[in-house]
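The step that takes the researchers longest sounds almost clerical: writing a folded protein down as plain text. The outcome of that step, for a single protein, is printed below.
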Amino acid sequence: MVNTIQSYRDIIAWQKSMDLSVAVYGKTAQFPKHEWYGLAQQMRRAAVSVFSNIAEGWGRGTTGDYLRFLRTSRGSLCELEGQILLSERLGYLASADVQELLNGTAECSKILQGLIGSVEFQQKKSGLAKNESHGEW
């Protein structure tokens, strides 16, 4: 039986990044009040950006757009990682929380990189032009 992806919600990278976002929301709720509209919000936006870009790229319907948005998701993951490390330095997150979030970013990054590689391979193998529809992966 072949697992075809019918929707962006079937993509493991999307599922894992959604889980990571939930974790980020939980951890940033512990931040001091003066950071609720600063670093906490920035971390939340970066985390939400990861799964949002996966979905938006999928929805655009072309391989070129899909790859571009997947790479943007990867950039948002790097942004989030830096923000997690800053939160630790500022004393807003305990070491255990930092490790949990960094493990989540690492897992998402590996899965996302694998997805990018797979889409690039399929694009080359099938000779899809950048603006051709990706259809079902």
Remarks:
- Residues 119 and 125 are 10 Å apart (CA to CA).
